[in-house]
Design a protein that fits this description.
Blueprint lengths: L4 E6 L3 H13 L4 E6 L2 H10 L4 E4 L2 E2 L2 E2 H11 L5 E5 L4 H9 L4 E4 L5 H36 L3 E5 L5 E4 L1 H7 L3 H4 L13 H13 L5 E7 L5 E12 L5 E10 L1 H19 L3 E5 L5 E4 L2 H6 L3 H4 L10 H17 L9 E6 L5 E13 L2 E10 L1 H23 L5 E3 L5 E4 L1 H6 L3
């Protein structure tokens, strides 16, 4: 469907202007012709409304079409302007071309000339619109390249640098003129050349290569890791016109990911249960030891309230203390070490030693708990107490005197029978 074309026709002969309007509009519904009788009123109309083309006679009151064209060009440098005149000469045509006329058409007899005029108007407007659409597209592309927070490189069809933006200069440490005309190999270390060569080949063949991660070398020799997103621009025949790459330095992110993976590996290998909760007391993460201690699989406990690991009585005290802490910052327990009773999934009680920690990340508060099952330690303590009690009883009731010394012959203990034998 064609876009409408608004035409301003300037002619001081009213009958001829009306006739021109009628015949042009008959050439198609897309034409909308308005008329003006002189240059001043035409300039005023142009300032009040948008027109796609001006058609003007050469002879105008107090001026001529060339002078009028010059006034239009001062304000509207690229607006299509067709000189439609009954006075035809090489001199007029030459002046019109020098003044920047879009087209020149001499009036003739008969109505067929209006079909020609309508066709000239349509062609001029379409070329004008196409040119400005291309210019707007190029302007948007330039703004995108220049203002993008990511590094942007434009490559030519041989994959040499054609343009880079400020962000790319900052990432790679090169000024644009230092890289123009250079191959991709100028910013790729030898260790990654084979990988990048495959990406380049895939891009040029249109077989992929649109996303990649590889090492790059800065101008100062530092090796960094960059993430690349590539796009190929082709013409109507499918030939590669340009290739654009957006990229960012993810060296720190990669290191953070490695560090995070190391931490996760360590946490998963820890024999103690490690939990992370948010301010709503919801469990965000748990290591594998939670299953041995509490009977819950790590993935099954995430999203549950922390109180699921407590008896009802302990849970009530915990919630009250936690809410009080969030409101006032007051701690009723020593977070470095506290002994509490937890609850196994089967309902049995678990003696625990707990260490709490708090961290704020991007404005949110998180709490980390390291929980150790004290069951075996408690059993060993009870066993030691029973053993000590038994030894103490035997020591006091033996029928012989017993004296215990350390390696330095210091007396540690003497039983009652020893006192009796020596009447001490």
């Amino acid at each position: 469907m064609f876009q409408s074309i608004r035409v301003l026709h300037v002619d001081d002969e009213a009958d001829l202007a009306d006739l021109t309007k009628t015949f042009i509009e008959r050439e198609g519904d897309r034409f909308d012709v308005e008329t003006a009788s002189n240059a001043d009123s035409a300039i005023e109309r142009l300032s009040e409304s948008d027109f796609d083309c001006v058609v003007s006679d050469y002879r105008l009151p107090k001026t001529d079409g060339i002078a009028f064209l010059q006034r239009v060009r001062e304000r509207y440098p690229y607006l299509p302007f067709i000189l439609f005149t009954g006075r035809g000469s090489e001199e007029v045509a030459s002046e019109a071309i020098s003044a920047g006329v879009t087209d020149y058409l001499q009036k003739q007899g008969g109505t067929s000339q209006y079909a020609v005029l309508a066709n000239r108007v349509a062609n001029s407007v379409e070329q004008y619109r196409s040119k400005h659409a291309l210019e707007d597209s190029q302007k948007r592309l330039s703004l995108f390249v220049e203002q993008s927070p990511l590094g942007v490189i434009e490559w030519d069809d041989t994959f040499e640098v054609a343009r880079i933006n400020d962000a790319a200069e900052a990432i790679l440490g090169y000024a644009e003129d230092e890289l123009i005309g250079e191959s991709w190999s100028a910013i790729v270390p030898e260790s990654d050349e084979a990988i990048v060569a495959d990406v380049v080949s895939e891009l040029l063949m249109g077989d992929g290569g649109y996303h990649s991660i590889n090492e790059n070398v800065r101008n100062d020799g530092e090796t960094i890791v960059c993430e690349w997103h590539n796009r190929v621009v082709t013409d109507e025949g499918g030939s590669v016109v340009a290739i654009f790459s957006q990229f960012q330095d993810i060296t720190d992110r990669r290191e953070q990911q490695r560090e995070l993976e190391r931490h996760r590996t360590i946490l998963q290998a820890a024999t103690n249960t490690v939990l992370t909760v948010d301010e709503t007391n919801t469990i965000l993460s748990a290591n594998s030891s939670v299953e041995e201690t509490f009977g819950y699989a790590p993935e099954g406990i995430v999203g549950e309230p922390l109180t699921v690991l407590m008896s009802e009585e302990v849970a009530e005290r915990h919630v009250a203390a936690f809410e009080r802490y969030l409101e006032t910052g007051e701690k009723r327990l020593e977070w470095e070490y506290v002994e509490l009773r937890g609850q196994h999934r089967d309902g049995s009680a678990i003696p625990l030693s707990v260490t709490f920690g708090e961290v704020t990340y991007e404005g949110d508060r998180y709490f980390v708990g390291i929980l150790r099952d004290m069951t075996e330690q408690r059993e060993r303590e009870h066993e030691r107490e029973r053993t000590n009690a038994l030894l103490s009883t035997l020591f006091e009731t033996l029928p012989v005197g017993v004296l215990a010394e350390d390696r330095s012959r210091n007396v540690l203990a003497v039983n009652r029978r020893m006192f009796e034998l020596f009447e001490l």
